[in-house]
Amino acid sequence: MRKILCISHGNLAKGMTETVKMIVGDFKNIDYYCAYSKEDEDIEREINRIIEENHGNELFVISDIFGGSVNNEWMKRINNDNSIHLVAGMNLAFVIELLVLINDSQMKGDEAILRAMKTATEGFIYCNQLKMNISEDDF
Fold it and tell me: Boundaries of each PTS EIIA type-4 domain copy (predicted)?
């Protein structure tokens, strides 16, 4: 099975996962882990548990920010297991695109990630630079 795991500091990953499911449906192969949300949490132990529970799955781990402690803990594990893909810089467009690609195509994991990254990047628009004649009545 191919599975997405959104990970973050605090509750961002939970919100991201719930929003994705609201938009595209209740896919069973997306989950989340919110670090630092429980007292006396052992992140290393939790990550090891997640890896063990997903043994045999192709796991797409999407972290909130590169260089953050959550991402860094996963960085220690990606060389040990080729079935783990780690991407930093979670955003809604990327997660939705990746979820659709891994469920609807036979595309290799790295190819799906690169396509989803391209799609997400194209979605960044600085709206102030749009030269449009829009009035308040249009909204």
Answer: 1-124
